[in-house]
Amino acid sequence: MKASDLELTGQVAIVTGGGGGIGRAIALCLADLGADVTIVDVIPERCDEVAAQVEARGRQALPFPANVMDSDKVREAVTATKDRFGRIDILINNAGGVTRRPFLQLQEKNWRRVIDLNLISMLTATHEAVPHMIEGGRGGAIVNVSSIEGSRAAPGYSVYSGCKAAINNITRTLALEFAEHQIRINTIAPDYTVTPGTKGVFTGPVDPSLWPPFTELELESQRRRIPAGRAGLEEECGTVAAFLCSKLASYVTGTLIPVDGGSWASSGWMRDGPDDDWILPPSTKA
Ligand SMILES: NC(=O)c1ccc[n+]([C@@H]2O[C@H](COP(=O)([O-])OP(=O)(O)OC[C@H]3O[C@@H](n4cnc5c(N)ncnc54)[C@H](O)[C@@H]3O)[C@@H](O)[C@H]2O)c1
Q: Distance, CA 280 to ligand 1 centroid (Å)?
């Protein structure tokens, strides 16, 4: 192994939802490793801010303001990337999200919106980008940002968790379909991560250092529920996604990596017993 196997110099990446949160962190980690990056985000200032940070790392950036729920715009983003950089090596299907609401309170337009944002955007971007990767003849890497909710029940998030479960399994199938072209496709599955979405910062540029700190109650809840004892940081998804795009992961495809501080492994166990030991609620005994 050589340290240079981590490098992405000369490669070109597209990151959806790249203007903030996990997408922003992935875009910056890819740029740190040498990639040029197209940032697709519905908020133009966020595209510009992340593009400036990519350029500050000595890489080229293409800010592409667009709503990924508009499939034509997703296709345009892919075409614009090919036109600007001449190649596409990496696709990060990150844009997604949901507002919590019980299933019976949803209307058809609500679940169509969730499916468009979380699933259709990923299908469209992948369908559009992969032929360019095949044409380039150098292979490629795709990382889909799923969620821990794609692997467990999630009351109030029924359609969202269904979309993420679909992403998990579509990833496995596409790994087989794309393997002959040396295109690898993998999924990362975060649990609670500090991002603009989870902090309620829905407009303007993003600077995580300006966000209000967690309350004592929030910190205590994280400590009890998440084995790592804290919420995830967006960079902690960025580094894993960047690794998956690198040569170090050249034999990794069709897999799912939880980036969740151990939440998936804990499967309901909490630090809530006497002497702070692990229990399965509602029991108070270890
Ligand atoms: N943050 C978490 O706790 C968490 C946990 C599990 C999974 N995820 C998944 O990670 C991904 C990123 O989550 P996040 O919390 O970083 O997101 P976020 O809500 O903080 O948004 C990230 C960026 O996406 C952009 N965006 C939102 N809707 C868009 C659209 N329709 N078109 C283009 N850009 C859009 C936003 O402007 C923002 O800059 C999502 O797929 C989400 O489901 C997040």
A: 31
